[in-house]
Design brief:
With 399 residues, the protein is of the alpha/beta class. It has 13 helices and 11 strands. Helices cover 36% and strands 15% of the residues. The N and C termini lie far apart (70 Å). 47% of the residues are buried. The chain binds pyridoxal-5'-phosphate.
Length: 399
């Protein structure tokens, strides 16, 4: 018979251990290490009385299964003691919009960081606006001064640290303290750091949002989102998920759970490789700046050092002024860096970006063209050689 894992004692273990143990129940799975992938809808009740009284451990496929519970519990174990519940959603964007809808009502006002993932802005400027909810964007580096932007009807503050293109690190505890003082809740897109490198709920966040598509899945083969909520917000999140009938297919839940088990080793390698590549790029004459929270000159670096326990593999570079065609030559010459959205998988990626036209509260005016890199799990030396190849192509194009 498999040993039972004592859920209550889990929190005494290091995060890496909790990633391995969390949400596991071999005794309920015939001794197998992993849960079954339950493809289900209807639950059969033994009698009509049981049906009327809803006397069953599971009610209906969309209301939770042993597979979805395993991932929810595993995420809850890694979020820490303040986590009251985790809701799984079919994508990171669905997790963001569901979390916003859970805490906002018509007539409310929400403050959103100016460096937020662009589709988050579209939810606010489109759907929330239509529902009578007003959004104000704010400087990501505002810190405690967020208090000056709060209105009578400000019910929520949305943070994303660091921003996933421009990498300013927000002072989440200061923002949370100011928000809570005025009765607003704090939502955070914590996809970059994951709960392993930033314990959002312990830093004052009420709703910590993950695009599980990225590092949790970790293999570019699943769309997944999660909202981890504290005591203040969990009931509203759960109710919203149930009312909208939101759920995730069991195979995707399973891929999320499978990815989560190796998150610590993957992130450690992403971090090590990204730091090495970032430092190499920083000393190249073609590069004006490297936007990486762990580098001393990144806006908010001191906050990153204070609040985060690691850095993942995503950062950006600012080229010295050069023609757009030269940047294209750089990107097209790369063999190991694929060109594509998303990140957090095992593979390296590179995309050009320009958020000047998107921002409304701050100006984004870098010295030259900008490119975002995701550093995957390939050999670091091969990746550096690939970037060098790109820079040679860039020079040939500029000449
Ligand atoms: C920072 C950030 N948050 C959320 C999302 C949305 O995740 P998904 O693609 O799973 O909807 C993304 C996707 O790129 C992202 O980069």
């Amino acid at each position: 018979m498999a040993k039972t894992i004592d859920v209550d004692s889990l929190q005494s273990f290091a995060p890496e251990t909790r990633l391995v143990l969390g949400g596991r129940d071999p005794a309920a799975n015939h001794g197998f290490v992993n849960p079954a992938v339950h493809h289900v809808s209807t639950v059969l009740y033994p009698s009509v009385e049981d049906f009327i009284e809803r006397r069953a451990r599971y009610l209906y496929g969309r209301r939770g299964t042993p597979t979805s519970e395993a991932l929810e519990n595993a995420l809850r174990d890694i979020e820490g003691a303040r986590c009251r519940g985790v809701a799984l959603l079919p994508s990171g964007l669905a997790a963001i919009s569901t979390a916003l809808l859970a805490v906002l009502n018509a007539g409310d006002h929400v403050l959103v960081t100016d460096n937020a993932y662009q589709p988050t802005r579209k939810v606010c400027d489109g759907f929330l606006k239509r529902m009578g909810i007003a959004t104000t964007y704010y400087d990501p580096l505002v810190g405690a001064d967020i208090a000056t932007l709060m209105r009578e009807n400000t019910r929520a503050v949305f943070v994303e640290a660091p921003g996933s293109l421009t990498f300013e690190v927000q002072d989440v505890p200061a923002i949370a303290a100011a928000a809570h003082q005025r009765g607003a809740v704090v939502l955070m897109d914590n996809t970059w750091a994951t709960p392993l490198y930033f314990r959002g709920l312990e830093k004052g966040v009420d709703l910590s949002i993950q695009a599980g598509t990225k590092y949790i899945g970790g293999h570019s083969d699943v769309m997944l989102g999660a909202v981890s909520a504290n005591e203040t917000t969990w009931k509203r999140v759960q109710e919203t998920v149930h009312l909208f009938g939101l759920c995730v297919g069991p195979d995707d839940v399973y891929l999320g759970l499978r990815g989560l088990r190796t998150l610590a080793v993957r992130l450690a390698q992403h971090e090590r490789a990204a730091m090495k590549v970032a430092r190499w790029l920083k000393q190249r004459p073609e590069i004006a700046r490297v936007l990486h929270p762990a580098l001393e000159d990144c806006p908010g670096h001191a906050t990153w050092e204070r609040d985060f326990t690691g850095a993942s593999g995503l950062f950006s570079i600012v080229f010295r002024p050069v023609h757009e065609n030269a940047v294209r030559a750089f990107l097209n010459a790369l063999q190991l860096f694929g060109i594509g959205a998303s990140w957090g998988g095992f593979e390296s990626l590179a995309i050009p970006f320009d958020c000047a036209a998107v921002r409304t509260a701050t100006r984004w005016n870098p010295e030259g063209p900008t490119v975002r890199l995701h550093i995957g799990l390939e050999s670091i030396d091969d990746l550096i050689a690939d970037l060098e190849r790109g820079l040679v192509a860039m020079a040939a194009c500029s000449a």
